[in-house]
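User: quick one, sequence for these tokens?
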């Protein structure tokens, strides 16, 4: 037996011991051993361990069958509780037992990130289905541990500890931070940055949002990132959410974004009562890919890999606007818009407010969306109704200016 195989075998024995353990002090020691041994596994061994959790640490079929039969004969509260207990997989009990170790929550979030990578690498079939069953259990547990009631909202600024600021640079997922000077601008007097933190990960942001305080609606990300600092905030009336980044891959599927925007809006209103409008300056990351599929004629004009001259984008302005509205409003994945950013904001009750031609003049902006950005408006008076209409029947809330673009060629608006 190789050393790697010995570690795998020891990890499986640790799982069995955790399920049998009744002593709290011994359980903590075993949990520490679990984390240590798991970290020693390579990717292939971790995949085998996840399959072990799927096949050997699931519910006991005999116990489940007996509990089902008992509940059918007598659907009493006691039999309902017994059925739920029988249906709980052993792997859930293992994960909960591991969480008594110091730093275990962080380690288990990392473990789920590894599991998601293993699922992505698995082809369709029984193996993927087995791994997804393990993931469903782990996600169920993480959703309870990272319930919004446990989250702490913090404003992040230049006085924030350096280790956390370094993580902001690393985790920024929408507009890359080019260095410390760039980050300093994003934390200046006319900017705000807020993040959610969890007691078990006090130095790790879970998610963060960057906000620009502006006079009027921002239409260009380069202006947001590069304009001179406004120290006075005189006349500022818009809060523009221009970047929101999930920081922990292992928490994918645990929803934080809507609650974060809600809490940040409340904090900004309390600090700056003069703010009248809350909106986003958002990317349209799948637009170019969709144009290649749905508008090959237009796509042929967008082929250059390097960022084109502004004149090319201007020449195609109307065609790009029509394509963007079709993509955001009409193109669907199931009952809802194809674009993931649109789905997030529309589900929150926002409406598609305006397109920003050449809103992102970077090479990335050209390659992803032909330089276009979009504003989503968060109107407190309309959020609930628009959320319900979207969730119930997929209705996409749009402004008159977006409707005008959609109507140019008789396209549907919902």
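Assistant:
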């Amino acid at each position: 037996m190789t050393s790697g195989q010995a570690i795998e075998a020891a990890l499986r024995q640790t799982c069995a011991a955790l399920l049998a353990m009744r002593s709290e002090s011994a359980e903590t020691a075993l949990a520490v051993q679990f984390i240590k041994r798991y970290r020693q596994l390579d990717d292939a061994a971790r995949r085998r361990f996840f399959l072990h959790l799927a096949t050997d640490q699931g519910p006991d079929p005999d116990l489940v069958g007996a509990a089902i039969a008992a509940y059918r004969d007598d659907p009493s509260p006691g039999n309902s509780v017994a059925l739920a207990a029988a249906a709980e997989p052993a792997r859930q009990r293992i994960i909960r037992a591991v969480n008594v170790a110091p730093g275990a929550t962080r380690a288990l979030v990392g473990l789920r990130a590894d599991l998601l990578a293993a699922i992505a690498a698995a082809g369709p079939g029984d193996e993927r289905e087995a791994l997804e069953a393990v993931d469903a259990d782990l996600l169920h547990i993480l959703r309870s541990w990272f319930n919004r009631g446990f989250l702490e909202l913090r404003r992040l600024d230049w006085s924030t500890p350096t280790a956390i600021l370094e993580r902001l640079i690393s985790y920024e997922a929408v507009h890359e931070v080019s260095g410390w000077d760039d980050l300093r601008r994003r934390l200046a007097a006319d900017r705000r940055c807020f993040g959610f933190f969890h007691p078990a990960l006090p130095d790790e942001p879970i998610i963060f949002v960057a906000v620009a305080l502006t006079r009027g609606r921002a239409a260009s990300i380069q202006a947001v990132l590069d304009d001179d600092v406004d120290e006075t905030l005189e006349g500022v009336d818009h809060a523009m959410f221009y970047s929101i980044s999930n920081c922990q891959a292992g928490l994918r599927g645990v929803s934080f974004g809507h609650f974060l925007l809600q809490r940040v809006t409340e904090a900004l209103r309390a600090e700056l009562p003069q703010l009248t409008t809350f909106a986003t300056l958002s990317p349209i990351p799948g637009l170019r890919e969709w144009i290649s599929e749905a508008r090959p004629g237009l796509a042929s004009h967008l082929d250059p890999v390097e960022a084109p001259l502004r004149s090319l984008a201007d020449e195609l302005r109307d065609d790009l606007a029509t394509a963007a509205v079709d993509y955001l409003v009409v193109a669907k994945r199931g009952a809802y818009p194809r674009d993931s950013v649109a789905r997030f904001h529309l589900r929150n009750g926002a409406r598609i407010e305006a397109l920003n031609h050449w809103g992102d003049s970077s090479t990335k902006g050209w390659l992803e969306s032909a330089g276009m950005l979009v504003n989503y408006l968060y109107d407190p008076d309309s959020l609930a109704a628009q959320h319900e209409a979207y969730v119930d029947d997929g209705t996409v809330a749009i402004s008159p200016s977006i409707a005008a673009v959609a109507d140019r060629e008789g396209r549907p608006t919902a």
